[in-house]
Amino acid sequence: MTKVNKKRLSQYIRKLYEEKLILYETEYSGDPLISFLTYDSRQVMKNTVFVCKGAHFQPSYLKQAVSKGAVCYISQVSYEEGNSIKAVIVKDIREAMAHIANLYYDNIWKKLSLIGITGTKGKSTTAYYIKSILDEHMALKGGEKAGILSSIENYDGVIFEESHLTTPETLELHNHFKNAVDKDIKYMVMEVSSQALKYDRTKGIVFNTGIFLNLSQDHISAFEHKDFKDYKEAKKVLFSQCETAIINKDSSYFKEMEKEAREGSKSVLSFSLKEDADYRAVDVKHTDSGYRFKVEGKNINREFSLNMKGLFNVENALAAISCCHLLGIKDTVIEAGLSKAKVPGRMEIFMDESKGVRIFVDYAHNRLSFQTLFDAIFTEYGKVPVSIVFGCPGNKALGRRKELGEISGQLADFVYITEEDSGEEDLSLISKEIFSYAGKGKAKAIIIDSREDAIKKAIDEAPQGGVVLITGKGRETRQKRGILYEETLSDVQIVERILSNES
Predict the structure, then answer these.
(1) Position 457 in a domain
(2) 287 in helix, strand or coil?
(3) Are residues 474 and 331 in the same domain?
(4) Could you give the CA distance from residue 130 to residue 180 in angstroms, rounded to a whole number?
(5) Low-confidence residues of the chain, pLDDT below 50?
(6) Under 8 Å between Cβ of 104 and 4
(7) Phi (first) and psi of residue 467, to 5 degrees
(8) What is the domain-level CATH number for residue 332?
(9) Helices 331-339 & 312-326 angle (0-180, nearest 10)
(10) Pairing of strands 33-34, 7-8
(11) Residues in contact with 114: Cβ distance below 8 Å, sequence separation at least 6, in sequence order
(12) What is the CATH number of the domain that holds 39?
Protein backbone atom coordinates (compact mmCIF):
# COMPACT_ATOMS: atom_id res chain seq x y z
CA MET A 1 0.00 0.00 0.00
CA THR A 2 1.27 3.43 -0.94
CA LYS A 3 2.14 5.40 2.15
CA VAL A 4 1.11 9.04 2.28
CA ASN A 5 4.07 10.99 3.62
CA LYS A 6 2.73 13.21 6.36
CA LYS A 7 3.55 16.87 6.08
CA ARG A 8 3.41 19.62 8.63
CA LEU A 9 0.70 22.23 8.73
CA SER A 10 3.22 24.90 7.78
CA GLN A 11 3.90 23.10 4.48
CA TYR A 12 0.25 23.34 3.46
CA ILE A 13 0.13 26.99 4.41
CA ARG A 14 3.35 27.68 2.52
CA LYS A 15 1.89 26.03 -0.57
CA LEU A 16 -1.19 28.26 -0.44
CA TYR A 17 1.03 31.32 -0.07
CA GLU A 18 3.04 30.22 -3.11
CA GLU A 19 -0.18 30.05 -5.11
CA LYS A 20 -1.17 33.53 -3.81
CA LEU A 21 -4.44 32.24 -2.39
CA ILE A 22 -4.24 33.27 1.28
CA LEU A 23 -6.04 36.42 2.37
CA TYR A 24 -5.03 36.05 6.02
CA GLU A 25 -4.34 33.47 8.72
CA THR A 26 -4.77 33.38 12.48
CA GLU A 27 -2.17 32.61 15.13
CA TYR A 28 -1.68 29.02 16.22
CA SER A 29 0.95 27.47 18.47
CA GLY A 30 2.66 24.38 17.12
CA ASP A 31 3.22 22.85 13.72
CA PRO A 32 1.59 19.38 13.79
CA LEU A 33 1.99 16.63 11.23
CA ILE A 34 -1.28 16.55 9.31
CA SER A 35 -2.96 13.15 9.31
CA PHE A 36 -5.95 13.86 7.06
CA LEU A 37 -7.75 16.32 4.79
CA THR A 38 -11.54 16.40 4.55
CA TYR A 39 -14.63 18.58 4.22
CA ASP A 40 -16.81 15.93 5.89
CA SER A 41 -16.92 16.58 9.64
CA ARG A 42 -17.87 12.93 10.24
CA GLN A 43 -14.48 11.82 8.91
CA VAL A 44 -12.34 14.15 11.01
CA MET A 45 -9.62 12.59 13.16
CA LYS A 46 -6.76 13.98 15.23
CA ASN A 47 -4.61 16.51 13.35
CA THR A 48 -7.00 16.98 10.43
CA VAL A 49 -7.16 20.01 8.14
CA PHE A 50 -10.87 20.68 7.68
CA VAL A 51 -12.14 22.38 4.51
CA CYS A 52 -15.27 24.53 4.77
CA LYS A 53 -17.03 24.40 1.41
CA GLY A 54 -20.34 23.89 -0.32
CA ALA A 55 -23.71 25.62 -0.60
CA HIS A 56 -25.03 23.56 2.30
CA PHE A 57 -22.11 24.12 4.67
CA GLN A 58 -23.14 24.95 8.24
CA PRO A 59 -20.92 26.34 11.04
CA SER A 60 -22.00 23.39 13.19
CA TYR A 61 -19.94 21.15 10.88
CA LEU A 62 -16.82 23.10 11.80
CA LYS A 63 -17.72 22.90 15.50
CA GLN A 64 -17.99 19.12 15.17
CA ALA A 65 -14.66 18.98 13.33
CA VAL A 66 -12.93 20.92 16.12
CA SER A 67 -14.35 18.56 18.75
CA LYS A 68 -13.03 15.55 16.82
CA GLY A 69 -9.46 16.79 16.47
CA ALA A 70 -9.18 19.26 13.60
CA VAL A 71 -6.19 21.58 14.04
CA CYS A 72 -6.88 23.93 11.13
CA TYR A 73 -9.73 24.98 8.90
CA ILE A 74 -9.46 26.46 5.43
CA SER A 75 -12.30 28.64 4.25
CA GLN A 76 -13.27 31.71 2.27
CA VAL A 77 -14.82 33.22 5.41
CA SER A 78 -14.01 33.01 9.11
CA TYR A 79 -16.21 31.30 11.72
CA GLU A 80 -16.38 31.77 15.49
CA GLU A 81 -16.81 28.00 15.81
CA GLY A 82 -13.18 27.63 14.73
CA ASN A 83 -11.64 30.20 17.09
CA SER A 84 -9.69 27.54 18.99
CA ILE A 85 -7.81 26.25 15.93
CA LYS A 86 -5.77 27.69 13.09
CA ALA A 87 -7.82 29.51 10.44
CA VAL A 88 -6.54 30.00 6.89
CA ILE A 89 -8.81 32.26 4.85
CA VAL A 90 -8.36 31.94 1.10
CA LYS A 91 -9.58 33.66 -2.07
CA ASP A 92 -10.82 30.49 -3.75
CA ILE A 93 -11.58 27.37 -1.72
CA ARG A 94 -11.84 25.08 -4.74
CA GLU A 95 -8.42 26.01 -6.09
CA ALA A 96 -7.00 25.77 -2.58
CA MET A 97 -8.38 22.22 -2.27
CA ALA A 98 -6.70 21.18 -5.50
CA HIS A 99 -3.30 22.38 -4.29
CA ILE A 100 -3.47 20.83 -0.83
CA ALA A 101 -4.86 17.57 -2.23
CA ASN A 102 -1.91 17.29 -4.60
CA LEU A 103 0.42 17.97 -1.68
CA TYR A 104 -1.27 15.54 0.69
CA TYR A 105 -1.36 12.69 -1.84
CA ASP A 106 2.15 13.41 -3.19
CA ASN A 107 0.93 13.84 -6.79
CA ILE A 108 0.05 10.17 -6.82
CA TRP A 109 -1.72 10.54 -10.18
CA LYS A 110 1.75 10.51 -11.77
CA LYS A 111 1.89 6.75 -11.09
CA LEU A 112 -1.12 6.15 -13.36
CA SER A 113 -1.69 6.38 -17.09
CA LEU A 114 -4.53 8.91 -17.02
CA ILE A 115 -7.07 9.27 -19.82
CA GLY A 116 -9.49 12.20 -19.60
CA ILE A 117 -12.56 12.53 -21.83
CA THR A 118 -14.71 15.63 -22.27
CA GLY A 119 -17.62 16.59 -24.53
CA THR A 120 -21.33 17.28 -24.35
CA LYS A 121 -22.29 13.68 -25.15
CA GLY A 122 -20.56 10.32 -25.45
CA LYS A 123 -18.15 10.62 -22.52
CA SER A 124 -19.49 7.59 -20.65
CA THR A 125 -19.69 5.38 -23.71
CA THR A 126 -16.18 6.28 -24.85
CA ALA A 127 -14.83 5.71 -21.33
CA TYR A 128 -16.35 2.22 -21.18
CA TYR A 129 -15.06 1.35 -24.65
CA ILE A 130 -11.55 2.36 -23.62
CA LYS A 131 -11.84 0.47 -20.35
CA SER A 132 -12.97 -2.69 -22.15
CA ILE A 133 -9.97 -2.52 -24.46
CA LEU A 134 -7.54 -1.83 -21.61
CA ASP A 135 -9.08 -4.65 -19.55
CA GLU A 136 -8.45 -7.02 -22.47
CA HIS A 137 -4.87 -5.75 -22.71
CA MET A 138 -4.19 -6.16 -18.99
CA ALA A 139 -5.81 -9.63 -18.88
CA LEU A 140 -3.23 -10.81 -21.39
CA LYS A 141 -0.49 -9.37 -19.19
CA GLY A 142 -1.92 -10.77 -15.95
CA GLY A 143 -2.51 -7.27 -14.60
CA GLU A 144 -5.38 -5.43 -12.95
CA LYS A 145 -8.41 -4.08 -14.81
CA ALA A 146 -8.46 -0.38 -15.63
CA GLY A 147 -10.06 2.02 -13.20
CA ILE A 148 -12.95 4.20 -14.29
CA LEU A 149 -14.48 7.40 -12.94
CA SER A 150 -17.66 8.17 -14.84
CA SER A 151 -21.17 9.55 -14.57
CA ILE A 152 -22.36 5.93 -14.29
CA GLU A 153 -19.92 4.17 -11.95
CA ASN A 154 -16.63 4.64 -10.14
CA TYR A 155 -14.13 1.79 -9.82
CA ASP A 156 -10.62 2.18 -8.39
CA GLY A 157 -9.78 -1.33 -7.17
CA VAL A 158 -11.12 -0.59 -3.69
CA ILE A 159 -14.33 1.36 -4.29
CA PHE A 160 -17.02 0.23 -6.74
CA GLU A 161 -20.00 2.56 -6.52
CA GLU A 162 -22.78 4.25 -8.41
CA SER A 163 -21.68 7.74 -9.36
CA HIS A 164 -23.42 11.00 -8.44
CA LEU A 165 -20.97 13.37 -10.14
CA THR A 166 -19.47 13.06 -13.60
CA THR A 167 -16.08 13.92 -12.08
CA PRO A 168 -15.57 13.39 -8.33
CA GLU A 169 -14.79 16.31 -6.03
CA THR A 170 -11.07 17.02 -5.60
CA LEU A 171 -10.36 15.11 -2.38
CA GLU A 172 -12.34 12.05 -3.51
CA LEU A 173 -10.63 12.19 -6.88
CA HIS A 174 -7.14 11.98 -5.41
CA ASN A 175 -8.26 9.23 -3.04
CA HIS A 176 -9.48 7.23 -6.06
CA PHE A 177 -6.04 7.67 -7.59
CA LYS A 178 -4.37 6.41 -4.41
CA ASN A 179 -6.67 3.38 -4.22
CA ALA A 180 -5.88 2.54 -7.85
CA VAL A 181 -2.13 2.77 -7.25
CA ASP A 182 -2.45 0.66 -4.08
CA LYS A 183 -4.19 -2.06 -6.14
CA ASP A 184 -1.54 -1.96 -8.89
CA ILE A 185 -3.96 -0.51 -11.44
CA LYS A 186 -2.03 0.95 -14.36
CA TYR A 187 -4.74 2.82 -16.26
CA MET A 188 -7.44 5.21 -15.04
CA VAL A 189 -10.11 6.32 -17.52
CA MET A 190 -12.24 9.26 -16.45
CA GLU A 191 -14.90 11.60 -17.68
CA VAL A 192 -13.90 15.22 -17.18
CA SER A 193 -16.91 17.51 -16.90
CA SER A 194 -17.03 21.21 -17.65
CA GLN A 195 -17.83 21.77 -13.97
CA ALA A 196 -14.71 19.86 -12.92
CA LEU A 197 -12.58 21.95 -15.26
CA LYS A 198 -14.19 25.26 -14.36
CA TYR A 199 -14.05 24.69 -10.61
CA ASP A 200 -10.53 23.25 -10.42
CA ARG A 201 -11.34 19.66 -9.40
CA THR A 202 -8.61 18.47 -11.75
CA LYS A 203 -6.23 21.43 -11.33
CA GLY A 204 -2.61 20.35 -11.05
CA ILE A 205 -3.26 16.98 -12.71
CA VAL A 206 -1.80 16.17 -16.12
CA PHE A 207 -3.61 13.61 -18.27
CA ASN A 208 -1.46 11.44 -20.49
CA THR A 209 -4.28 11.59 -23.04
CA GLY A 210 -7.12 14.10 -23.28
CA ILE A 211 -10.04 13.40 -25.63
CA PHE A 212 -12.49 16.01 -26.95
CA LEU A 213 -15.66 14.53 -28.47
CA ASN A 214 -18.14 17.30 -29.29
CA LEU A 215 -19.82 20.44 -28.02
CA SER A 216 -23.34 21.79 -27.98
CA GLN A 217 -25.22 24.13 -25.67
CA ASP A 218 -25.84 22.54 -22.26
CA HIS A 219 -25.35 23.15 -18.54
CA ILE A 220 -26.37 26.79 -18.79
CA SER A 221 -27.79 28.02 -15.48
CA ALA A 222 -26.98 30.23 -12.51
CA PHE A 223 -25.54 27.15 -10.80
CA GLU A 224 -23.28 25.95 -13.65
CA HIS A 225 -22.26 28.11 -16.65
CA LYS A 226 -23.65 31.60 -17.17
CA ASP A 227 -23.63 31.21 -20.96
CA PHE A 228 -22.36 29.01 -23.80
CA LYS A 229 -19.05 30.86 -24.00
CA ASP A 230 -18.35 30.05 -20.34
CA TYR A 231 -19.22 26.39 -21.00
CA LYS A 232 -16.96 26.24 -24.06
CA GLU A 233 -14.05 27.93 -22.30
CA ALA A 234 -14.30 25.41 -19.46
CA LYS A 235 -14.00 22.52 -21.94
CA LYS A 236 -10.83 24.06 -23.38
CA VAL A 237 -9.07 23.82 -20.01
CA LEU A 238 -8.49 20.10 -20.62
CA PHE A 239 -5.98 20.96 -23.34
CA SER A 240 -3.76 22.77 -20.85
CA GLN A 241 -3.79 19.63 -18.68
CA CYS A 242 -2.95 16.87 -21.15
CA GLU A 243 0.20 15.70 -22.90
CA THR A 244 -1.58 14.46 -26.03
CA ALA A 245 -4.93 15.78 -27.22
CA ILE A 246 -7.20 13.67 -29.45
CA ILE A 247 -9.93 15.77 -31.10
CA ASN A 248 -13.04 14.88 -33.08
CA LYS A 249 -12.57 16.49 -36.49
CA ASP A 250 -16.30 16.17 -37.20
CA SER A 251 -17.12 18.61 -34.40
CA SER A 252 -18.13 22.05 -35.65
CA TYR A 253 -15.70 23.42 -33.03
CA PHE A 254 -12.73 21.37 -34.25
CA LYS A 255 -10.59 24.27 -35.52
CA GLU A 256 -11.09 26.28 -32.35
CA MET A 257 -10.30 23.29 -30.14
CA GLU A 258 -7.33 22.25 -32.25
CA LYS A 259 -5.83 25.74 -31.96
CA GLU A 260 -6.26 25.62 -28.18
CA ALA A 261 -4.75 22.13 -28.01
CA ARG A 262 -1.70 23.07 -30.05
CA GLU A 263 -1.01 25.85 -27.56
CA GLY A 264 -1.52 23.72 -24.46
CA SER A 265 -0.65 20.11 -25.32
CA LYS A 266 2.58 18.50 -26.49
CA SER A 267 0.91 16.76 -29.45
CA VAL A 268 -2.48 16.78 -31.18
CA LEU A 269 -4.23 14.02 -33.13
CA SER A 270 -7.62 13.90 -34.83
CA PHE A 271 -10.29 11.32 -35.67
CA SER A 272 -13.21 11.47 -38.09
CA LEU A 273 -16.02 9.59 -39.80
CA LYS A 274 -16.19 12.14 -42.60
CA GLU A 275 -12.81 13.72 -43.35
CA ASP A 276 -9.13 12.88 -43.63
CA ALA A 277 -7.74 12.60 -40.11
CA ASP A 278 -5.06 10.79 -38.15
CA TYR A 279 -7.67 8.09 -37.53
CA ARG A 280 -10.62 7.71 -39.90
CA ALA A 281 -13.52 5.24 -39.92
CA VAL A 282 -14.57 4.06 -43.39
CA ASP A 283 -16.86 1.40 -44.88
CA VAL A 284 -19.24 1.55 -41.93
CA LYS A 285 -21.78 -1.27 -42.22
CA HIS A 286 -24.79 -2.29 -40.12
CA THR A 287 -24.75 -5.73 -38.52
CA ASP A 288 -27.45 -7.51 -36.55
CA SER A 289 -25.86 -6.39 -33.28
CA GLY A 290 -24.24 -3.09 -34.24
CA TYR A 291 -21.61 -2.09 -36.80
CA ARG A 292 -18.56 -3.27 -38.69
CA PHE A 293 -16.10 -0.64 -39.92
CA LYS A 294 -12.49 -0.13 -40.96
CA VAL A 295 -10.08 2.31 -39.35
CA GLU A 296 -7.35 3.85 -41.47
CA GLY A 297 -4.59 6.03 -40.13
CA LYS A 298 -1.12 6.17 -38.64
CA ASN A 299 0.15 2.57 -38.65
CA ILE A 300 -3.38 1.19 -38.61
CA ASN A 301 -5.60 -0.35 -41.28
CA ARG A 302 -8.00 -2.84 -39.75
CA GLU A 303 -11.65 -3.76 -39.39
CA PHE A 304 -13.42 -3.54 -36.04
CA SER A 305 -16.78 -4.70 -34.70
CA LEU A 306 -19.04 -2.80 -32.34
CA ASN A 307 -21.94 -4.58 -30.68
CA MET A 308 -24.04 -1.51 -29.87
CA LYS A 309 -26.67 0.27 -31.95
CA GLY A 310 -26.49 3.93 -32.96
CA LEU A 311 -24.13 5.35 -35.59
CA PHE A 312 -22.98 7.93 -33.03
CA ASN A 313 -21.41 5.06 -31.13
CA VAL A 314 -19.08 4.39 -34.07
CA GLU A 315 -17.73 7.89 -33.45
CA ASN A 316 -17.22 7.05 -29.76
CA ALA A 317 -15.57 3.76 -30.72
CA LEU A 318 -13.22 5.60 -33.08
CA ALA A 319 -12.16 7.89 -30.24
CA ALA A 320 -11.45 4.82 -28.10
CA ILE A 321 -9.49 3.09 -30.87
CA SER A 322 -7.42 6.25 -31.47
CA CYS A 323 -6.62 6.51 -27.77
CA CYS A 324 -5.68 2.86 -27.28
CA HIS A 325 -3.64 2.71 -30.50
CA LEU A 326 -1.73 5.76 -29.26
CA LEU A 327 -1.11 3.92 -25.96
CA GLY A 328 0.57 1.10 -27.90
CA ILE A 329 -2.20 -1.48 -27.53
CA LYS A 330 -2.09 -4.10 -30.32
CA ASP A 331 -4.81 -3.83 -32.95
CA THR A 332 -5.92 -7.42 -32.29
CA VAL A 333 -6.39 -6.57 -28.61
CA ILE A 334 -8.27 -3.37 -29.46
CA GLU A 335 -10.57 -5.37 -31.74
CA ALA A 336 -11.23 -8.01 -29.07
CA GLY A 337 -11.81 -5.46 -26.32
CA LEU A 338 -14.12 -3.31 -28.40
CA SER A 339 -16.22 -6.26 -29.53
CA LYS A 340 -16.87 -7.12 -25.86
CA ALA A 341 -17.62 -3.55 -24.76
CA LYS A 342 -20.87 -2.91 -22.93
CA VAL A 343 -22.05 0.28 -21.24
CA PRO A 344 -24.43 -0.12 -18.27
CA GLY A 345 -27.72 1.63 -19.01
CA ARG A 346 -26.64 2.80 -22.45
CA MET A 347 -28.74 1.74 -25.47
CA GLU A 348 -29.96 -1.37 -23.63
CA ILE A 349 -32.72 -3.01 -25.69
CA PHE A 350 -35.70 -4.98 -24.38
CA MET A 351 -38.63 -6.50 -26.28
CA ASP A 352 -42.31 -6.65 -25.45
CA GLU A 353 -42.98 -9.75 -27.53
CA SER A 354 -46.76 -9.47 -27.18
CA LYS A 355 -46.85 -6.27 -29.25
CA GLY A 356 -43.48 -6.32 -31.00
CA VAL A 357 -42.46 -3.17 -29.12
CA ARG A 358 -38.77 -2.39 -28.69
CA ILE A 359 -37.84 -0.65 -25.46
CA PHE A 360 -34.58 1.31 -25.22
CA VAL A 361 -33.09 2.37 -21.90
CA ASP A 362 -30.47 5.08 -22.35
CA TYR A 363 -28.80 7.90 -20.45
CA ALA A 364 -29.61 10.51 -23.13
CA HIS A 365 -30.29 13.73 -21.22
CA ASN A 366 -29.41 16.76 -23.33
CA ARG A 367 -30.29 18.25 -26.71
CA LEU A 368 -27.46 16.62 -28.66
CA SER A 369 -27.96 13.17 -27.16
CA PHE A 370 -31.76 13.37 -27.66
CA GLN A 371 -31.39 14.37 -31.29
CA THR A 372 -28.88 11.63 -32.06
CA LEU A 373 -31.01 9.04 -30.24
CA PHE A 374 -34.08 9.88 -32.34
CA ASP A 375 -31.92 9.90 -35.50
CA ALA A 376 -30.58 6.45 -34.62
CA ILE A 377 -34.07 5.03 -34.06
CA PHE A 378 -35.48 6.40 -37.34
CA THR A 379 -32.39 5.29 -39.27
CA GLU A 380 -32.59 1.79 -37.83
CA TYR A 381 -36.35 1.23 -37.82
CA GLY A 382 -37.89 3.83 -40.11
CA LYS A 383 -40.80 6.08 -39.13
CA VAL A 384 -42.14 3.87 -36.36
CA PRO A 385 -44.38 5.32 -33.60
CA VAL A 386 -42.13 6.48 -30.77
CA SER A 387 -42.98 7.01 -27.10
CA ILE A 388 -40.51 8.67 -24.76
CA VAL A 389 -40.22 8.88 -20.96
CA PHE A 390 -37.98 11.57 -19.48
CA GLY A 391 -37.63 14.47 -17.06
CA CYS A 392 -35.11 17.20 -16.28
CA PRO A 393 -32.99 17.81 -13.16
CA GLY A 394 -33.64 20.55 -10.66
CA ASN A 395 -31.60 23.77 -10.63
CA LYS A 396 -29.24 22.84 -13.46
CA ALA A 397 -29.05 22.89 -17.26
CA LEU A 398 -32.28 24.88 -17.33
CA GLY A 399 -32.27 25.14 -21.12
CA ARG A 400 -32.86 21.40 -21.41
CA ARG A 401 -36.49 21.82 -20.46
CA LYS A 402 -37.22 23.80 -23.61
CA GLU A 403 -34.84 21.83 -25.84
CA LEU A 404 -35.92 18.35 -24.78
CA GLY A 405 -39.56 19.38 -24.64
CA GLU A 406 -39.44 20.72 -28.20
CA ILE A 407 -37.46 17.78 -29.63
CA SER A 408 -39.70 15.16 -28.02
CA GLY A 409 -42.86 17.05 -28.94
CA GLN A 410 -41.79 17.26 -32.58
CA LEU A 411 -40.25 13.81 -33.08
CA ALA A 412 -42.13 11.50 -30.72
CA ASP A 413 -45.76 10.46 -30.85
CA PHE A 414 -46.25 10.10 -27.10
CA VAL A 415 -44.35 11.99 -24.38
CA TYR A 416 -44.43 10.97 -20.70
CA ILE A 417 -42.85 13.66 -18.51
CA THR A 418 -41.69 12.43 -15.11
CA GLU A 419 -39.20 12.69 -12.26
CA GLU A 420 -35.47 12.92 -12.94
CA ASP A 421 -33.47 14.16 -9.94
CA SER A 422 -35.61 17.19 -9.15
CA GLY A 423 -33.43 17.91 -6.11
CA GLU A 424 -34.41 21.08 -4.29
CA GLU A 425 -36.73 22.31 -7.03
CA ASP A 426 -40.46 21.56 -7.17
CA LEU A 427 -40.98 18.53 -9.45
CA SER A 428 -44.36 19.76 -10.65
CA LEU A 429 -42.89 23.08 -11.80
CA ILE A 430 -40.13 21.31 -13.76
CA SER A 431 -42.65 18.99 -15.42
CA LYS A 432 -45.04 21.80 -16.29
CA GLU A 433 -42.22 23.79 -17.91
CA ILE A 434 -41.22 20.79 -20.06
CA PHE A 435 -44.89 20.20 -20.93
CA SER A 436 -45.30 23.81 -22.08
CA TYR A 437 -42.85 23.03 -24.90
CA ALA A 438 -43.63 19.36 -25.58
CA GLY A 439 -47.34 20.11 -25.83
CA LYS A 440 -46.78 22.44 -28.80
CA GLY A 441 -45.61 19.60 -31.05
CA LYS A 442 -47.46 16.72 -32.70
CA ALA A 443 -46.96 14.41 -29.73
CA LYS A 444 -49.54 13.66 -27.09
CA ALA A 445 -47.81 14.76 -23.86
CA ILE A 446 -48.78 13.96 -20.28
CA ILE A 447 -47.17 14.39 -16.84
CA ILE A 448 -46.84 11.43 -14.47
CA ASP A 449 -44.83 12.17 -11.31
CA SER A 450 -43.98 8.54 -10.51
CA ARG A 451 -41.22 7.38 -12.83
CA GLU A 452 -42.25 3.75 -12.44
CA ASP A 453 -45.85 4.57 -13.32
CA ALA A 454 -44.75 6.64 -16.31
CA ILE A 455 -42.62 3.80 -17.69
CA LYS A 456 -45.41 1.28 -17.17
CA LYS A 457 -47.98 3.49 -18.91
CA ALA A 458 -45.62 4.17 -21.83
CA ILE A 459 -45.08 0.44 -22.39
CA ASP A 460 -48.75 -0.43 -21.90
CA GLU A 461 -49.90 2.25 -24.35
CA ALA A 462 -47.18 1.77 -26.97
CA PRO A 463 -48.64 1.03 -30.42
CA GLN A 464 -47.96 -2.32 -32.09
CA GLY A 465 -44.43 -2.40 -33.52
CA GLY A 466 -43.49 0.87 -31.88
CA VAL A 467 -40.45 2.01 -29.91
CA VAL A 468 -40.34 3.20 -26.30
CA LEU A 469 -37.40 5.36 -25.25
CA ILE A 470 -36.70 5.64 -21.51
CA THR A 471 -33.97 8.20 -21.04
CA GLY A 472 -31.87 9.94 -18.42
CA LYS A 473 -31.42 7.41 -15.60
CA GLY A 474 -30.33 4.09 -17.12
CA ARG A 475 -29.20 1.77 -14.35
CA GLU A 476 -29.08 4.46 -11.65
CA THR A 477 -30.79 3.27 -8.47
CA ARG A 478 -31.30 6.63 -6.77
CA GLN A 479 -33.30 9.81 -7.22
CA LYS A 480 -32.08 13.13 -5.87
CA ARG A 481 -34.91 14.56 -3.78
CA GLY A 482 -34.06 17.66 -1.79
CA ILE A 483 -30.39 17.38 -0.85
CA LEU A 484 -30.53 13.60 -0.41
CA TYR A 485 -30.38 10.65 -2.78
CA GLU A 486 -33.20 8.17 -2.17
CA GLU A 487 -33.10 4.52 -3.23
CA THR A 488 -35.33 3.64 -6.20
CA LEU A 489 -35.59 0.94 -8.84
CA SER A 490 -33.50 1.64 -11.92
CA ASP A 491 -35.17 2.08 -15.30
CA VAL A 492 -33.76 -1.30 -16.33
CA GLN A 493 -35.21 -2.97 -13.23
CA ILE A 494 -38.60 -1.37 -13.83
CA VAL A 495 -38.68 -2.55 -17.45
CA GLU A 496 -37.62 -6.07 -16.51
CA ARG A 497 -40.30 -6.20 -13.82
CA ILE A 498 -43.01 -5.00 -16.22
CA LEU A 499 -42.01 -7.44 -18.94
CA SER A 500 -41.93 -10.36 -16.52
CA ASN A 501 -45.43 -9.38 -15.29
CA GLU A 502 -44.19 -8.93 -11.72
CA SER A 503 -46.26 -6.73 -9.44
Answers:
(1) yes
(2) coil
(3) no
(4) 17
(5) 503
(6) yes
(7) -125, 135
(8) 3.40.1190.10
(9) 140
(10) antiparallel
(11) 188, 190, 205, 206, 207, 208, 209
(12) 3.40.1390.10
